[in-house]
Design a protein that fits this description.
Elements (H helix, E strand, L loop, with lengths): L6 E6 L3 H12 L3 E7 L3 H10 L7 H7 L2 E4 L6 H10 L3 E5 L6 H14 L3 E4 L6 H9 L5 E9 L11 H17 L5 E7 L4 E8 L2 E8 L6 E8 L3 E5 L4 E15 L2 E11 L8 H15 L7 H28 L1
Parallel strand pairs: 1-2, 1-3, 3-4, 4-5, 6-9
Antiparallel strand pairs: 6-10, 7-8, 8-9, 10-11, 11-12, 12-13
Helix pairs in contact: 4-5, 5-9, 7-9
């Protein structure tokens, strides 16, 4: 492995996410960042100069690379990713995998036909706290899951669908943790689509997910209720707390009876690090070995199917509200 030449990787799409991919690739010793392409040539030149590579045209980049990150707007995923796969490149595409489930399935099939790696950029899978949760769940009888992904946008006028942009992260994590698809879905929204809550049943497990762009505090948490314990995951802190053996206790203080609950709280030691770096290292390893990526195209399609179902229920509810006016 150590005597292999660096993997030649390019970045297509030099927006904020693409720039971060370029940054991390430039830091990896096993990668040669061979170029950045973007429809905005000035943006491509700026990012390329920052990370010591070239700003090149799309077709030129395809000829230089072994693999690429695709970080273009979602509506362009199907076209750009398919052209990369047809050029026999391995691809990491930012989430969601495509604009529609049909497009996502077509990309997954094309990757299989071309025998190429197609990894989907569901970055929370590479959060060390989620890794610890995945180690724990095999020993748990899970009853319910709650997720909160809240906060104001960096640009308060930023467009985008809160379900596809934010909730999809937790949809993917919950699907991976439970290793199944939901059997029923309901959803409700507010604040002109900037706040949404979805409730899903996974056989005997209930999951409630909330995403918001109007909450004046940034929150990224997931809580798993199991018969054995309660597990709290903080994505931002990259921490996990396990609450066990909660029991009531009555105390007497100056003749007054007080009631409290005591719990045994475990704080497992987990690794740290930037999830994006872990994600790109995993992609490089999959390309090097030809192995299945950590987040497959099929995983990406499953997450997209779920968020499309959630959004369709919100659309129906919004339409009913409009008709009732």
């Amino acid at each position: 492995m150590t005597d292999q030449p660096p993997l030649r990787i390019g970045v297509i799409g030099a927006g904020s996410m693409g720039e971060n991919h370029a940054r991390v690739y430039s830091e990896l010793r096993t990668v040669d960042l061979v170029g950045v392409a973007d429809r905005n040539r000035e943006v491509a030149r700026r990012v390329a100069a920052e990370y010591g590579t070239d700003a090149v045209e799309f077709e030129t980049l395809l000829d230089r690379c072994d693999a690429v990150t695709v970080a273009v707007p979602t509506h362009a995923h199907a076209d750009v990713v398919s052209r990369c796969l047809e050029a026999d490149l391995d691809v990491l595409v930012e989430k969601p995998i495509a604009g529609t489930v049909e497009e996502g399935r077509a990309l997954a099939e094309l990757a299989r036909e071309r025998d190429r790696v197609l990894q989907v950029g569901h970055i929370e899978r590479f959060n060390p706290a989620v890794g610890m949760l995945e180690e724990l769940v095999d020993d748990l009888e899970i009853i319910g899951v709650e997720a909160e992904r809240l906060g104001p946008p960096i640009n308060r006028d930023a467009p985008g669908n809160v379900v596809f942009d934010l909730m999809i992260h937790d949809v993917d994590v919950v699907g991976a943790v439970l290793d199944r698809e939901p059997t029923s879905i309901s959803a409700i929204g507010a604040a002109d689509g900037r706040y949404a809550t979805a409730t899903m049943e996974y056989d005997d497990v209930v999951a409630t997910l909330t995403a918001s762009r109007v909450t004046q505090k940034k929150v990224r948490k997931l809580t798993v209720t199991a018969r054995e314990c309660l597990v709290e995951v903080d994505y931002l802190e990259q921490s996990v707390l396990i609450y066990r053996d909660s029991y009531p206790e009555y105390l007497t203080d100056d003749g007054q009876n007080r009631y409290r609950h005591e719990s045994v709280v475990e704080r497992p030691r987990i690794g740290t690090g930037e999830p994006l770096r872990h994600e790109l290292e995993s992609f490089v390893e999959a390309v090097r070995t030809g192995s299945e990526p950590e987040v497959t195209a099929e995983d990406g399609v499953r997450a997209l199917e779920t968020v499309q179902a959630i959004d369709s229920r919100l659309d129906r509810r919004r339409q009913r509200e409009v008709n009732a006016r």
